[in-house]
Amino acid sequence: MFEALIEGIVNLSSPHSLLLLAAGSAVGLLFGAIPGLGGTTAVALLISLTFGMEPWQAIILMGGVMAATSTGGSVSAILLNTPGIAPNAATTFDGYPLAQQGKAGMAIGAGATASALGGVIGVISLVAVIPIMKAIVLLFTPPEFFMLAIFGLCAIAVSSGDRLLQGLITAIIGLMVGFVGYYDVTSTVRFDFGIPLLEDGIKLVPALIGLFAISEMINLAVKGGSISEGASDVEISRISDGVKSVFKNWSTMIVGSGYGTFIGAVPGVGGTVAAFLSYSTQAQRDPTPDIEYGKGNIKGVIAPESANNAKDGGSLIPTLAFGIPGSAETAVFLGVLVLHGIEPGQKLLEDHQDLVFTLVVALTVSAVFATLVVLALAKYMALLTRISVHMLIPTVTVVALVGAFALNTEIGDVVIAFIFAFIGYFMIKFNYPRVTFTIAIVLGSITELSFHQSMLISDDQFSIFYTRGLSVFLMFLTVLSLAFPTFRRKMKERKLAKQEAEK
Amino acid sequence: MISKITTGALALSAVAMIASAPAQAMDFPKKNITFLIAYGPGGGFDTITRKLGPYLKKYLGGKVNIVAKNLPGGRGKKAAAFLAKRKPNGSHILMFNMPGHAMPNIIGEKAGYDVRKIDWLGRVAQFRYIIVTSAKKGKYKSIQDVLKAKSQIKIPITGPGTTGYLASAILWNALGVQPKYITGYKSSSRYALGVIRGDGDLTILAKGSFKKYVSSKKKKRAAFKDLKPILEITNGKSEFGVPTTGEMGQKDLAILGGDRIVGTTPGTPKAIKDKLAGALYKAVTDPEFVAWGNKVGRPVAPLNSKDATKLVGQLYSYYVQYKDILSASNKKTR
């Protein structure tokens, strides 16, 4: 293994390789930052470029792209309330309020640093679990997927804060949105109203573009000014504060990275769920925060961003163990390997260990490289929040709509983005949480599918959920996560009461 | 007089058409050709289409590009309907997933295309099936155990209407077994994993996928080493030393499997179609492409335009016999 690692480093150390990595990283950053494009599109577009390359060169280019997209996506999530890629949606919850407060530099600094460290932790975890990775993948069966989804949905209760009723209403609507379209269990199309566009369901990216980016532009158009209008006196570039905040809140970053690696390893769940779970767990672990979550708490940026990038390492676990992609990007990456005559899965690890480690090194270096680029440019990027709405709104709206269209060159996706823009705007106006809505859209289909499969496996016996070790453990975690904030708050109140009594 | 003029005009236009046919073929292709992919980037269809593109370009004269374009949606229907609506000039081609793409036509579902009208250019690859169980967790150690089973056989699989599901439905119906399907798995590798985990008892797998899954220098370390074949769908001798459907007297079942057949828009002029088909056959049989297919466990199975057209007809006639089973499986909800 050590020899293969050295070979991976050697492969990457030539100027040509570094150039390829930098190019991949730059493309990843750009495609990550432009809403709708994302890493999957970037990797798919670059496939034909790799035809003339050696396999390890193709791997370096692709590794560069994959590790940089979520870092790029965090920038638009923070500055424009627009998740560049779906997993960055959770970053908007606290990233954008920070930008509104004139702390965009700080948020970008924290997001980028958490991304880099998360990426490195994800890759180290991948290397560490290689001997037991098959067992990890096999642990997850439909009941465990269901419990994991329920664990995530419980975040709705926490993320709603004092707006529980509104949170539940938007969550129910979100679940309904998640159920639209083709259902894998029955192979039937539901709630499509005969509209061909809805046959494959409401796609997450155009929905998120509308819900976050365009709705915010409508909101800005109504309000006027600029994103950080009310915070014009505040120093906009506090990048180093952001970097420091990650080290100060190291446990948030470690837990987030753990989530990313763990969820990444479970095929079919993906970075969006990892980021949401990491965010909600952070909010649950910290029931009495200095700054409320959703109102610009830096830990609300660190948690999802570290999970986002750690997922890249984690999603390679099922890929290397079984040749099953852990994410959409990995699926395309597997296609690249096959095009180069390399069969993914166990044989890749046996016959091409050097290539595996070339990828590992490329992912690590690219995550750090992308972060350095973002940190270097953060000061200038943060100025976006000071641009007048007259310039910002048309630019962001056009870029966002092009992103929605580019995903599948489908004009209907632009219509979806518009519809969700107005839904999002009315949610802002009437103070309904968009967080719960998004969590429900993301987790709705996984919850339904895994529940249905569990019932099929168990002949409709609910005992399947409480007679399996991991499923029970996840159930326990869910209960704990719901009870823990209350318990901790009560303890704190008791302590305060005691202190006051002593005074 | 008028009729003479009409006859003359018709004769002239016929001569013009005949004369222009070779001219069309000589000119073709003048513009890039779009090689549609009915599924998203990354899967088997995406990979094989992208790999085949440069070879097709080579045998079409090398002057125009073959542009791969993903058009996922409606489980493959969107790309096929898109192809059917293009001008019939050979500008678009698509690798069909048969029999999956034929199902909407067979069961009378709205599709926007008819596989019986597509102009078929040739086959690229095919696969046939085996039935596998888990050596560790499987309740049934042999096909005899399955046939004697008193309880329902649980089968993890993709959803109703998919190629694997259809083959399963026809197979178990022929063998008189009433299975219970655990549906919803996204791909064959996922439901194979389901069998290893014990989600169900057994499943159907393409032979090539099975070989790929269990191949390893050290057999003990093979990713899917727990998978064990118990039945092979063939009329020949089993590659795996297990009973075959042919031996069980079910000769008809040997057709069950998947064929990757390339087609173009209905009504494409014969000269253009022939040129495309000729180039496709050469591309598929190019030694480099063949070697690649063998290396990555996707061996080619070339068929020319005429034989591919005949095959589509045979597949359609075969599956349409099971229209009721297929319609039922497609509408099945719980």
Main features:
heterodimer, A: 503 residues, mainly alpha, two-stranded antiparallel ribbon, 23 helices, 2 strands, globular, B: 334 residues, alpha/beta, D-Maltodextrin-Binding Protein, domain 2, 2 domains, eight-stranded mixed β-sheet, 10 strands, 19% strand
Describe this structure in words.
The complex is a heterodimer of chains A (503) and B (334). Chain A is built from 23 helices and 2 strands. By secondary structure, chain A is mainly alpha-helical. Chain A has one domain (2-398, 408-502). In chain A, strand 1 (181-183) and strand 2 form a beta hairpin. In chain A, helix 3 packs antiparallel against helix 4 (55-80), helix 11 runs antiparallel to helix 22 (434-458) and helix 14 (271-285) packs antiparallel against helix 15 (299-314). Chain A is globular. The model of chain A has no long low-confidence stretch (mean pLDDT 84). With 334 residues, chain B is an alpha/beta fold. In chain B, strands 1, 2, 3, 4, 7, 8, 9 and 10 form an 8-stranded mixed β-sheet that branches. In chain B, strand 5 (153-156), helix 6 and strand 6 (179-182) form a beta-alpha-beta unit. In chain B, helix 1 runs parallel beside helix 9 (270-284) and helix 2 (44-59) crosses helix 9. The radius of gyration of chain B is 22 Å and the shape is globular. The N and C termini of chain B lie far apart (71 Å). The chains are: A mainly alpha (503), B alpha/beta (334). At the A-B interface, helix 3, helix 7, helix 17, helix 18 and helix 22 of A face helix 2, strand 6 and helix 7 of B.
